[in-house]
Structures are given as structure tokens and as C-alpha cells.
Amino acid sequence: MTSLTSHAPFPLQPLCDSKGRLLDGAIGWSSRPHVDCTLHGHAGRRKRWNHWCITTPQWMLSLTLADLDYLGYGAAYFLDLETGQAVAHTQFRPFALGCQLPDLPLESHSFSHSRLQLRIDEHPGRLRLTAAAPDIGGQPLQVALDIQRPAHLQSVNLVAPLQNGGFHATSRQLGLPTAGSLQLGGKHYSCVQGQSFAALDFGRGVWPLNSYWQRAAFAAAGGIAGNFGAGWLDYSGQSENALWFGGEVQLLDSPLHIERSSQAPLAPWRLDSADDRVSLRFTPRQLHRACPKLGPFHANTVQRFGHYDGVLRGPKGERVPVDGALGWLGETHARW
């Protein structure tokens, strides 16, 4: 895919060779993007995935743009945290027509359909996110957000081998300060300055036909954030579990446990690391279920939105409290 705007450093490390085999030099992690995620070979099995989540004290917005090689997928989900109102729209595009997803995480991308328009335009140090849907839950949606990329803010950039010759490349970008607003029907929603953040989940690779994963994330003022996952990279020797302090990212070396207190839909969850660097409680306020399906292929996702409370251990072992930080925790079973 092509893009008008690129801010990646050069030279870039190729992800795979001309036959689609993962290169050893790409495996591992860095705090800045440096891998060219151009995919070769593996026709029908190549996956490109950009997921945005915007959190504010009053509302949350989730946007997905995906190119599954044989299918394009766009989705929008909006949640009013105060009233509980939620609306969602999903749209498919055969052979990913109208879906432009680049090979680098800091490039413009879009999903275009008459019923759903998603666009992210990258500029130096910032990006513009716009979205439009003429009918989402019976109302029109218009989104216009300005998202900052502070120079000091790092990210988790990881490449990991998967079973049966597959591989996964990701860039997890959290805590991006966000301003702007959206309009849903006759109601206007604005971002709260200093308390509104965007997160990008950029994924590229050759993924298993049948997959399961958990992912949890949050962001708070002061450059504090966390990204946690389970199920996806368990046998790869790599981990995406990380904490941010003042915008600087630190990977977690110790195993992390993500457990639900009961089977109730909105039951609290515990996230604890063996080295006590993470001791968090996640309390869901609302959940969103999505199960897009086409023939034998599907992605069954439950995403819970709520807040995190607890304690982290900083770079020098200091106690860092987490108090009502907005975030989410999701589970996905996919056959794609």
C-alpha cells in the first residue's frame, strides 16, 4: 500500500524476504518504529490491522481498519459513558477495495465505503482523524479529532515469530493527547483537555487461521500508561507487556496474569505481575460484543470499557498510584 505521508527513520529493517520468510534481523523490540512491514508471499494469509481507541472521561470511540487480504473490514463503535448509550457499525469490502493500510505505523491510512468513512492523515508531530457514518444506530456520526505525537513519547514496536512459519509485527502507541469533538445525531461531544487520549494498535503479519488473544490497555495524565496481552505471543519468546512513565516505555520481564473475578459480564478483573511491578484492578462500565462473519471466517470479540485502579512500580522501584485511569480489556476468538 502507498501513503502520502511518512515520518519513519531510515534505513528501515525489512520484516521479511522476497518469499515472505521472516528475517532474523527484524525479531525483537524497540521503543521507536524501525521495521518496514511490507508483506511478500503467503497470498490470502497476509493481515494488516489498524485499531484506534479514543478515551475521554465522558465517552469512548473505537475504530478498526483491516485488510485481511481477501476482505476489507471497517468498524466504528461509540460509547457514552454517562448514559450508557452505545452505537456500532461494521462494513465489509471484497478484496479490501477502498482499504488503504500502509507498511509503516506512522503513515496515513483510510477505509472508504458509502456507509462508513475512516481517515487518518499523518503530519509531522500530529495526525488528523476523521470519521463519518450516515447511519449508526439510526443516527449520523461525524468525528474530527486532532491527535498529538509528542517527541518524547515512546511506543512498543515488536516483531515475533509464530507457529507454522507465521509472524507478527506490531506497534503499540498509547497516551497520545487528543483534542476535538464528534457529533452523534443532535448531540455534541468534546474531548476534555489533558484527560483525552488516543491509542493505536498497528499489526502486520502472517497470522494463524485460528487465533485467540486478550489485550488490556490504559492511559492517564503524566505520561502513565500500560499495555498488556496474553494468548497471542505465548510461545514466541516475546512479550508486548509494557509500562510508560513520563512517556518512556519499559518492557515487563516478569509474567503477567490477567484474571476475571467471576463470569458476570461486568465482573472486575485483576492484572498482576510476578515481580509486583503491576497490581491493578480493572472495573468495566460497559461492554461491546462484535462478531463480524463471512462464510467460514469470523472474529468474535468482547471489549470491555472501564477504569483501572491500583499501583505500579516505577523505573527505580517507586510506587506509582493508578486512580480511575480509563482503558479497556478485550478478548477475541478469530478464524481468518
Automatic annotation (TrEMBL):
<dbReference type="Pfam" id="PF10974">
    <property type="entry name" value="DUF2804"/>
</dbReference>
<protein>
    <recommendedName>
        <fullName>DUF2804 domain-containing protein</fullName>
    </recommendedName>
</protein>
<dbReference type="InterPro" id="IPR021243">
    <property type="entry name" value="DUF2804"/>
</dbReference>
